[in-house]
Amino acid sequence: MLRHLALALAVGLLPAAGLRDPAAQPGPARSGTGLPQLNAPVISAPLRPESLKFAVIGDFGDGGQAQYDLGRQMWAARAGFPFEFVLALGDNMYGRQEPQDFVTKFEKPYKPLLDAGVRFFGALGNHDKPENRFYPGFNMGGERFYTFVRQHVRFVVLDTNLMDPKQLAWADDTLRTAPEAWKIVYFHHPLYSNGGRHGSNVELRVLLEPMLVRHGVSVVLSGHEHIYERIKPQKGITYFVEGSGGQLRKGDLQRSATTAAGYDEDRTFMLIEVTGDEIRFRTIARTGMTVDSGVIGRRSTT
Amino acid sequence: MTTHALPHPAAIGSGRHTAGALFHFTIEHFLLLPIGGLIALVWANTRPESYFTLTRDLSFVVNEVGMALFFALITQEIVEEVMPGGALHTWRRWTLPAVAAVGGTIGAAFVYLAYVGFQYELVLSPGWPVAGAIDIAFAYFIVKAIFRRHAAIPFLLLLAIAADTLGLLAIASRQAFVEVRPGGAALMAAAIALAFGFRQWKVRTFWPYLAICGPLSWWALYVDGFHPALALVPIVPFLPHAPRSLDLFADAPHGRHDSPRHFEHVWKYPIQMVLFLFGLVNAGVLLSGYGTGTWALLVAAVIGKPLGILAATGVAVALGLHLPPRLHWRDLVVVALATSGGFTFGLFFATAVFPVGPILAELKIGAVATGIGVPLAFAAARLLHAGRFGRHAHHARPARSET
User: Fold this and answer.
1) pLDDT for the residue numbered A47
2) Which domains, ranges and CATH numbers included, belong to chain B?
3) Which residues from B are below 8 Å from A162, CB to CB?
């Protein structure tokens, strides 16, 4: 226990007493503050062994060197933070998507993770072939939108390429009836973003946000912008943009009043731990440097 | 110094006259639609939250209900043109423009699909009918402005009607969401049977067709997942009709078209309001939402469609069909470029194919951006000395080719 406490203090996972708002805890690294230290050690010990641990990546499947590097870093991180599965936020494949491409753009970069039994749960992005939902490696069960539960967390995965009424009704019903304490929703296009290329998708926000607020969703994860950004809580929900798992639009983050933290200098992935009424997150760059971290409190689900 | 609190009565009269003339001009030139679109674009990019909140509430009523009146009007005009005595009676008048329309649709679809395939964004593939859409009114006014009275005008109108009919057939079944139920088919059968009955009973007013058959047909399409804006299309052919000449957007001639019983007479202004709302609800897109779909649509509409029209016409002429008298190839190039603008039909097809989301937004931007066809058509006319830019244009006698 003392060892966990010491490690948490060392890497900033433990928040200051009484601080629950991530906006009040800016990450240790910021865009434009200089190049990350190469070969910085990854220290990512979970606070509680029984907690739910998972990783998050988005916009990654291009088969480039950076994707392979990040895959290795994720594997290294897992030594100290044994995450069970990975949320893939869409654009899981870029370019040609023939069977051989699934090997070079997914199976090889994450081979150690896949061999260790880590499962990826995909959402569809605009670059993904719709048929990719049938690819076993993305565990989508052939569905564009689906849900799964791990411990006391309900994950709801949406296809924001095509936000049809049927999907909306399904999501509303699924979130409304979910008895789990935590509700985490992820999809490709961000409702809030300060990325220079796309920005917030306000049309989707008008459609989805009331439902997310109404049903007690605590965290929403998206990609699409090839940067990392954490948005200050909006109507109680913390939004993350994690779209630099392989692709990167360097220097594209246009910080605004809604930006809590961000990083646009290199590729990143996230590690998330759910313990009781708290989510602890950490965002790690390709070099191993932690670029953001914090704690999110659970919203009431009733 | 004195100031007048109220304007002089003569000024009021003059102001009223000016306002009336402006209103008339706006209605006659179908300008309410682009005005609505312009307002939407500015609104969406300055106050997006309020804009999208409003459109979320309005879009169903406008797109799925109100637009049924617009398509009823289009259907009415086509039915009256192809009936005996109408401008398009006999298949011979249709053949070459219809072939050109097929070519344009294929050309646009080919370029669109090739582009999205090349960019590996196959989620956009179902949007190919959007690329073939032609805004009939928009294209008409461009060609009219270039050629005034010329064989190019009826050729363009026939081409546009045929191309949009092809597109409507392609999108009528929104495959991803269609689920034909026996109840829906029965409702549609009942709607058509009633319309047939009204016709047999010589019911001259359109109201029973609209108020009884219309909702039945609308509900039938809606429950089966087809686009309900097409609800009046199978009903309108049963309405009383009078043949018309091919001048779709000019003042309707006196006679039966002016009758209060006539659909067009009663719905002329409400349909313009529907089109204004259609532009307001659908044309508002965040300009940062452009993407592969935008470029695919633009390239397909501006390059693929005109090339397809010219290629198909070339093949048809080589096989023995004849161009209409006084319609030269240079005129045809201008006509083909004038078909680039998708606007109303492009936006409608896009909303019919894709639900709300970033994919739809990309295509909407593309549909609006196809307006680039206007300067291209004028530039081509100037370059090729077509129509009003002809070397002897001022000596040309007015043609009588619109009949």
Assistant:
1) 65
2) 31-178+225-386 (1.20.1530.10)
3) 123, 176, 354-355, 357, 359
